């Protein structure tokens, strides 16, 4: 009988299939069709528990003993497993402790595709000897922004080989497998895996890992210039010298207006649209409440005509921040500017990730680190967003449009703040911090990293520095809305106090409950 696993669930293979020697892994999904079809490639990660860097190879690079060399790639099957792999457990090298199986979208940034377009994803484990299914895990992407996902893994245990449902996603595709701090992806040569890993499905493409890391870019075709026959120049009027500015000119009387023109029929009134709901909105159904519409109008930043756009000098720091392309903020380069072109539209994510903690026996143990932020809107509204106190959205449930939303915390994926870029201009600033519940986190073991990512492919990595021994909270980064730009700054500000101390230090005036960790309830 098949064991249906939840995310994080595991099963001992020998309990379900005594004497099992070869394990079959099936990966399946369904997606779009036509030009908008999502191209996914299965991949395998050979992991040794962190002793050295993991190695990756695509599923169709795994040798298939029955496949003819040079065979044309077949289309993806409409039903059933898309990728089929077989692992010979006794032949797995001792240095390989985990084999992880997943899928990655090819050229996700260039195509603008994520796992939101992929449906019915699953991984299943079979006894290859009799083709009996042992376990199955059906997964859904956590945010919809993922471009690569690890479905499941088989790993060594004291009692034997186990299978675990992982369901871990990455918004940066295969490079995300290098970990929160980034780094190079090591590729495994197919011949190294041939002794213990084979493929039972046909190869669908000829791509390799390098094609995922550096997809080709197609430049637009060049249009040859149109040569226009020259014509004799027209005579130009004599150029008059510019007139000197005279302050009195501004005081000259305005000439009388001509006769008034008869007024035409009045233009029909443009209907006022209802308050736009954000994809981050956690409130109930739309209500035609005039007060809510008024609040949305009051907090929405006015559109700026192009004539009022500020031009920064090419030697100014703002101009340099707008034109640069950086991927890491540190002590040497603590701030940058994301223009509207850089950050694009839709949702921006701010994700805190950390290293997994383990007991002395190697089992995972829970950590004490959480993500939160202080925010301030243009209309002087301000508040706190964190799991503690269950304030997980800003400007709150009653607002017509949510700007920030705090996602669920997960030991594997970390915790994410989702930012609605369409409503961000209604905000003035927000500060993101990491904190421990009532005690200081184990900063040195957790090695937290903050990653800021946009759908355009822009990404920033912000690492925390060395923490003081008793620091309970760290302001990691600040985000400031300035004209049409978002200024992102690395703060790396550790405090031994609580959230109220952070607010006072950075200029927030809020009413706090006793203890200073949550806001006081205002009737």
From TrEMBL:
Region (Disordered) residue spans: 211-322
InterPro entries named in the record: Stress/Tellurium_Resist, TerD
Gene3D superfamilies (alphabetical): sav2460 like domains
Bias kind Pro residues: ranges: 221-241
Compositionally biased spans, kind Low complexity: 260-276, 288-309
Domain named TerD: residues: 1-178
Family (UniProt): Belongs to the CAPAB/TerDEXZ family.
Protein name: Stress protein
